[in-house]
């Protein structure tokens, strides 16, 4: 519990203690007033009797017993306010129960407010965060420029991505790998070290190229190109928003022989979090 909550709870307890003291004072005040008036009356009677006592002082040598003024006053107070004196413990218990109940309600309200603030903060963050994903998928190509043997080259796949969110993707990193062959769709990826990318503001279109590192022949490329799910690209984007919170976008896509692009293992290898 933070300092604000502790102060709020202490304030509630202080106010309830004040209410309790007011109830007790309301019970005790008439008693004190009655006792005070009784005392004043006793003092007045004592003043009136001083003269007579002075006159009779010479004739009276035996001292008089002390008067029980306070005891009489307490007895009269109890006789006058018997119901209040009897219900005082009950009223104190009611005040305590009220204090506990009010504090409990305040604690629940504080918890509900805190949870509502957390939900609102998370919703705002999800609404304003960056979302990095594909923009244009492109197609695999056979690249043999500047090769001594034009029949040999590399399989490359250039594709575009963008930020669909409302805030820039900062500290953007990308790792990707290409798999080829009949088992490419089932292969376990071994990602290389991620490479840094430029910050990606909202709606900016950027691109990258996935490369199969081994040289292949033109005939081998044509075979892969004309077969379903024989060329697969997997990768992971990691990035942060401007407040430093981390995010991740993982993808896996493959080419079908008719030219379409398909997501592979959509539930496992394609997600944004």
Description:
The protein has 273 residues and is α+β, with helices and mostly antiparallel strands. The chain folds into 2 domains: 3-128, no CATH class; 132-272, Immunoglobulin-like (Sandwich), CATH 2.60.40. The protein is 45% helix and 26% strand. It is built from 5 helices and 10 strands. It has helices spanning 3-55, 69-80, 82-128, 218-225, 266-269; strands at residues 132-136, 140-143, 152-163, 170-180, 195-196, 205-217, 231-240, 246-255, 261-263, 271-272. Strands 4, 5, 7, 8, 9 and 10 form a 6-stranded antiparallel sheet that branches. Strands 1, 2, 3 and 6 form a 4-stranded antiparallel sheet that branches. A hairpin with a 5-residue loop joins strand 7 (231-240) and strand 8 (246-255). Helix 1 packs across helix 2 and helix 1 (3-55) runs antiparallel to helix 3 (82-128). The protein is rod-shaped.
């Amino acid at each position: 519990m933070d300092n604000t909550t502790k102060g709020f709870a202490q304030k509630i307890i202080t106010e309830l203690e004040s209410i309790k003291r007011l109830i007790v004072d309301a019970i005790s005040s008439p008693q004190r007033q009655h006792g005070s008036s009784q005392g004043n009356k006793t003092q007045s009677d004592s003043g009136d009797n001083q003269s007579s006592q002075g006159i009779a002082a010479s004739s009276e040598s035996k001292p008089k017993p002390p008067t029980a003024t306070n005891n009489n006053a307490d007895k009269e107070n109890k006789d006058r306010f018997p119901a209040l004196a009897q219900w005082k413990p009950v009223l104190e218990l009611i005040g305590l129960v009220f204090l506990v109940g009010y504090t409990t309600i305040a604690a629940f309200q504080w918890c509900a407010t805190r949870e509502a603030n957390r939900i609102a903060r998370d919703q705002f963050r999800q609404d304003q965060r960056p979302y990095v994903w594909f923009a244009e998928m492109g197609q695999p190509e056979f690249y043999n420029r500047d090769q001594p043997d034009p029949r040999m080259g590399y399989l490359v796949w250039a594709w575009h991505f963008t930020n669909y969110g409302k805030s820039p993707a900062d500290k953007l990193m990308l790792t990707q790998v290409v798999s080829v062959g009949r088992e490419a769709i089932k292969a376990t990826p071994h990602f290389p070290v991620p490479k840094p990318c430029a910050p990606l503001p909202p709606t900016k279109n950027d691109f990258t190229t996935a490369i199969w590192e081994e040289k292949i022949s033109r005939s081998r490329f044509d075979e892969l190109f004309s077969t379903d799910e024989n060329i697969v690209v997997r990768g992971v984007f990691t990035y942060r928003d401007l407040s430093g919170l981390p995010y991740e976008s993982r993808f896996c896509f493959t080419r079908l022989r008719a030219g379409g692009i398909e997501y592979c293992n959509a539930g496992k290898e394609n997600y944004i979090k």
